[in-house]
Write the structure tokens for this entry.
Amino acid sequence: MRIANLAGRLVLLTDDGAVDVERASGQRFPADPHAVYARWEEFTTWAADLAAAEAEAFDEAALQAPSPAPNQVFGVGLNYRDHAAEAGLDLPDSPTVFTKFPSCLTGPSGEIALTGPTVDWEVELVAVIGRAAHRVPVEHGWDHVAGLTVGQDLSDRTLQLAGPAPQFSLGKSAPGFGPTGPWLVTPDEFADPDNLALSCEVNGESVQKSRTSELVFSVPELVARLSAILPLLPGDLIFTGTPAGVGMARTPQRFLAAGDELVSAVEGIGTMHHRFTEPS
């Protein structure tokens, strides 16, 4: 199943187009895309039994973040072996976690204003929580995931690394620095949700390419590790980490500039397209 946020309304995506959930359900479910996660089991049961519904063609430019108002957004650092190596750091014994403030979230296409000359790309698989999770064992981690989407953990490296203590959360939370989309895909749609190709291109040049099987801590492991400390809530996002190829680790270093086109993709989900503008 694929669901999306189409101009602020929850839709189911079919081969024929988009089905408006509020109308198709007779207002059983509201149009608000975020509200569905608190009723995820009820919603998926209804959607599985939904008879043929009228689907309409839609403009992908109207797609917005699949979970637009999460209570919590977790970012995981150094979660690919090759990224830890390019950073010159040892693999972590436990997830290295920061937050991206929800105000940074945006949709899968459009323009994003740079904050300065050192904004970096980081393509990521993003897991969206569908069932509240607290002290969940690894073997049940996937049971609490509503679905997967594509994400970018855009990072202002100057701000991120400023001061005697790094400012990870501030450096990664400027407006637009958390693109997600183009839609959410439920785990049952994948032959192996733990082994998906992901990639990133800047102006048509491949800069990142890997598979999620290379994660140090897999999606169910992250659900277990995070939920051991605090409850994960329906609609929460987990940015699972980025592979090697970020601009800061290159020689010479390379960062995003006004006019650059960024394309981010995950196998079985889809592709995001963004263009960068001068700082506002």
User: Anything to note?
Assistant: The longest helix spans residues 40-49. The longest strand covers residues 145-152. The radius of gyration is 18 Å.
